[in-house]
């Protein structure tokens, strides 16, 4: 027959095992709690497309310091879409701005923000967003269609005058010397934009994938040569862009 000390030892061992099995230590310390914010209410509101509730509960998730980056991005997108459906374009744009600060490589959001800028009549910003989406994902069908229709709209409405002296890219983020030179010269800026518009217009719906890849490769090679050659003796930036414009217009049939 076992003594009292053996019984006590066995009981202690059993309690220790039970504590470990339930995630507690022998000292009674509780397991660490998950401190992340719960995205479930925002997800449920988004699925139901309850715009008022989305703005409320997803807004709370966005403002919570414990929200994961991925959940914050999803909440911002859900709220932006709700704002858009409610006709509140600028709050939607601000939400998309925040998404792109967290994930600048999101081509879908560049395209979505571009559509909002287009709706608000800010055509240069719309063109810049569609171009950014295409640069991030050359196969982005919606961005390509938007960019192409925007180029056609600009020509049809004569809206190119509204962006006279502005290139196709954002001068505020220009880093290369050649880009800064284009931004500083309205004539070069107009010419650069004409080259870009002609390139987009040349990418027709009836192009085969091989033709589209060839045209895109030629355009990328032109830009690479422009960037590498600018500032070297004998290189004429304006002449080079005019030659490229003629090539594109020949491809386009204009």
UniProtKB/TrEMBL annotation:
<dbReference type="InterPro" id="IPR019734">
    <property type="entry name" value="TPR_rpt"/>
</dbReference>
<feature type="signal peptide">
    <location>
        <begin position="1"/>
        <end position="26"/>
    </location>
</feature>
<dbReference type="Pfam" id="PF07719">
    <property type="entry name" value="TPR_2"/>
</dbReference>
<dbReference type="InterPro" id="IPR011990">
    <property type="entry name" value="TPR-like_helical_dom_sf"/>
</dbReference>
<keyword id="KW-0802">TPR repeat</keyword>
<feature type="repeat" description="TPR">
    <location>
        <begin position="107"/>
        <end position="140"/>
    </location>
</feature>
<keyword id="KW-0732">Signal</keyword>
<dbReference type="InterPro" id="IPR013105">
    <property type="entry name" value="TPR_2"/>
</dbReference>
<protein>
    <submittedName>
        <fullName>Uncharacterized protein</fullName>
    </submittedName>
</protein>
<keyword id="KW-0677">Repeat</keyword>
